[in-house]
Amino acid sequence: MSSVIRIDHVAIVVDDIDSALDFWRDALGLEVTHVEDVPEQQSVVAFLLTGESEVELVKPTADESGVYRYLHKRGPGLHHICFQVDNIEVALAKMRKHGVRLINPEPVIGTGGKRIAFIHPESTHGVLIELYELTYQEPEIRLARARELADRVRAQGQVVAANVLEFLRGLRDTASEEIFDDS
Ligand code: CO
Predict the structure, then answer these.
(1) Which of 51, 59, 84, 95 has its CA 20 to 30 A from that of 11?
(2) 50 near 116, Cβ under 8 Å?
């Protein structure tokens, strides 16, 4: 028997992570837990904490990615819901028994080092579903990816983009307060 433990995250496709954070982080007040470049999915993701679950903002970084096509066709919005299960192999076997169309017939390593598998919306009444099983290797994989990203940023001698964007947002907010302050 396999069972669903909780909703791990709800993913939303956006065309601009920074302006999405204007709502999700600044207006709604969710805390950003991590931001990750996921080259194998050609996207950048930001995770925001909400109790025991998270909101995942996904921005495609290449024209040929599935997420890009989704954004282009349907616009920004809900992309998938991820359920944490206690045993992903058992869950997938059960799906197969029920004739469910699986995008990943076998689990793959996804964002954050998570062991996951996607289920086709055709079998779920229109919602892309992700299954996720917590494994002991996950923190290790996540750490390795964070190091790899840090090395890449260092190698390119880039300024940390987030700080620049914060700075620009500060400037913009100050400017718009002056323009729209009618008191
Ligand atoms: Co996801």
Answers:
(1) 95
(2) no
Give the three-state DSSP class for 64.
coil
Distance CA 35, CA 14 (A): 14
**Does 183 have pLDDT greater than 60?**
no
pLDDT tens digits, one per residue of 20-48: 999 999 999 999 998 888 887 788 999 99
Quick one: DSSP state of residue 123?
G
With CA atoms as reference, report the closest residue to 33 among 23, 45, 44, 41: 45
Cα of 102 vs centre of ligand 1, distance in Å, is 15
CA of 114 to the centre of ligand 1 (A): 9
Spatial separation of the C-alpha atoms in residues 82 and 67, rounded to whole Å:
16
